[in-house]
Design brief:
homodimer; alpha/beta; Alpha/beta knot; 2 domains; 7-stranded parallel sheet; 7 strands; 47% helix; elongated
């Protein structure tokens, strides 16, 4: 797992609603230290750093968790460790259990999208929200689910459902981040682009039109006006940068310098 | 990785807009077979099964990929394998590159959310969309990104960004699955545009590059490679229609016919 993966962003995130605590992700009876470390990394990718552990199988602290967490070690350092689930949830206002729809327990079922929207709203009111994740092999037991207010189920392919613990944590963290990090790179990118001015695009269009006229491109005569209109329309549609415009001028100039 | 993780659902997914092909996920020069298998699983969780591989490091087929894919083996069975990226993208109408914002190449940047909304709308119009993922260590190179129409960047914590290949694929597949059909008019406009295919844009880029080479445009020699990259990147960024491409070919051909 490289420190710099293929997907990262340089823009600062904004948090407009930092009233209450972040959601707390509770790993219930996790088995592998590596998965605890991976969960810490997945969380921190989206700015979540409140983790609680209930009865981790191999005790705590866990060196494999630390090794896997790498740069996200501070999530583990701060993690609360509890003997049982009621202790871990004692101060929580609202609890979600991530699980398949239970056939035995009737509980409201939420998508990650809806649940994180609710969590955001509760946070704004100063409430503490917890999200439970079950052990790797079997997931949460009914006993665990019975302590939650609602269920979160990821809508996956019914013919192939294989999300593991780290992936479930990642998707929940992503949903939290997607809704709360107001990074709109396309709009920022648009705002920062050094577009050519109208007058520069006009000059480029004229340059091409004159040169193409000279080489007989607008032919036959009866279609010339229409061809010029289509070409002029294209130049403005392309959203050229100032650098693009210079490049197009340069290309045309060089061709005519060499051949003309 | 257990076959039944903690998060699954019993509800069938609905596909209301199955007009065109699914998005194709293209793994560019992937290194570890395990990661190819994990990507296949992540995709199939959300119903995606079109994978292409460009020059996988350890050749193909790959037993480690098969072992990791487990129940998602059919994604690998169907995967197309290509020697280079242009071959893999030849029939694609619109290409996204997953990467951090490039400081060198200017391209529109999209969130996964926005990109998948666009992809859904383009699919409804029968278009083939590809999403590129780079190799594990270094991600996509500028050369690869220059062949994409737009960039997808996951908005992550700027102080801790550690998404690996499998996680990036998972998040993109999740976004695909998450979204409903309420495409915005602006996005529908994008979907209806008759964009030139990748192979057509590639041919145009080659045509200009050859002609400009012949007239000594790429000067001095030390800057030639960089100038070519910038130019190639521009062609894909402009989102040229099929008609634009024909017009550019025609302009250049006529100039050389007359002067050459």
């Amino acid at each position: 797992m490289p420190p710099n993966g293929p997907a990262r962003i340089t823009q600062p995130m904004t948090h407009e609603d930092e009233t209450g605590p972040q959601p707390t992700l509770v790993l219930v009876r996790p088995q592998m230290g590596e998965n605890i470390g991976a969960a810490a990394r997945a969380m921190l990718n989206f700015g979540l750093d409140r983790m609680r552990l209930v009865a981790p199988r191999d005790g705590w602290p866990n060196q494999k968790a630390v090794a896997m967490a790498s740069g996200a070690g501070r999530v583990l350092d701060r993690a609360g460790v509890y003997d049982d689930l009621p202790a871990a949830l004692a101060d929580c206002d609202y609890v979600y259990a991530t699980t398949a729809r239970s056939r035995e327990l009737s509980k409201p079922v939420r998508t990650p999208e809806r649940a994180m929207a609710e969590a955001r709203a509760m946070r704004a009111e100063g409430k503490r929200v917890a999200i439970l994740f079950g052990p790797e092999r079997a997931g949460l037991e009914n006993e665990d689910v019975s302590r939650a207010n609602a269920i979160i189920t990821v809508p996956v392919n019914p013919d192939f459902a294989s999300l593991n613990l780290g992936q479930s944590v990642l998707l929940m963290a992503y949903e939290w981040g997607r809704q709360s990090l107001h990074a709109e790179p396309e709009i920022m990118g648009l705002a920062r682009t050094d577009f050519a001015t109208q007058v520069e695009v006009e000059a480029l269009a004229n340059h091409f039109e004159e040169r193409l006229d000279a080489v007989g491109y607008f032919f036959p005569e009866t279609k010339a006006a229409g061809m010029k209109l289509v070409l002029r329309n294209m130049w403005t549609r392309l959203a050229l940068t100032r650098a693009d415009v210079q490049m197009f001028h340069g290309m045309l100039r060089q061709i005519f310098r060499k051949l003309g």
